[in-house]
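Hi all, posting the design record for the shared folder.

TITLE: backbone redesign
STEP: 1 of 1
STRUCTURE INPUT:
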């Protein structure tokens, strides 16, 4: 455990909170758009923002926060799947849901076919609330960890 990691976790939690707020905002703005076809560009832009914000929050949680908590707790880093399994053991989320979130994030990052985007928007909309529900649990445990190991 290093004091630098504790400080970095503190900074990442600020970014996590902002990313969650931005996703919540996009989620509200896209409610009536899900499932619609032939949307004008300004409405498609809202959906693009939703998917981007979903992917960003998923990355912050799984790639950064989960990894930092593991490092502070001196747990071997391992694979993404290892981090997901440890998150489940910590009570943050069901591993199968985290795997779906991660797979969807990867699909967002690599999907360019317009015909698949409507399906992606719909799945993002469905999983966004589950992703957002993880944030307070992780934040609470991370705060307790930072109190345990003050920098």
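Okay, here is what came back for every position:
SEQUENCE:
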């Amino acid at each position: 455990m290093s004091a630098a990691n504790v400080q970095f976790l503190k900074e990442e939690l600020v970014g996590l909170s902002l990313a969650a707020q931005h996703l919540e905002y996009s989620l509200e703005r896209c409610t009536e758009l899900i499932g619609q076809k032939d949307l004008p560009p300004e409405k498609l832009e809202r959906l693009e923002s939703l998917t981007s914000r979903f992917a960003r929050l998923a990355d912050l949680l799984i790639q950064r926060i989960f990894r930092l908590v593991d490092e502070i707790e001196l747990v071997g880093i391992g694979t993404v799947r290892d981090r997901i399994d440890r998150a489940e053991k910590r009570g943050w989320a069901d591993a199968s849901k985290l795997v779906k979130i991660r797979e969807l994030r990867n699909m967002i990052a690599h999907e360019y076919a317009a015909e698949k985007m409507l399906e992606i928007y719909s799945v993002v909309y469905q999983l966004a609330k589950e992703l957002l529900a993880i944030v307070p649990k992780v934040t609470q445990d991370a705060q307790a960890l930072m109190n345990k190991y003050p920098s």
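COMMENT: The chain has five helices and no strands.
Let me know if anyone wants the other runs.
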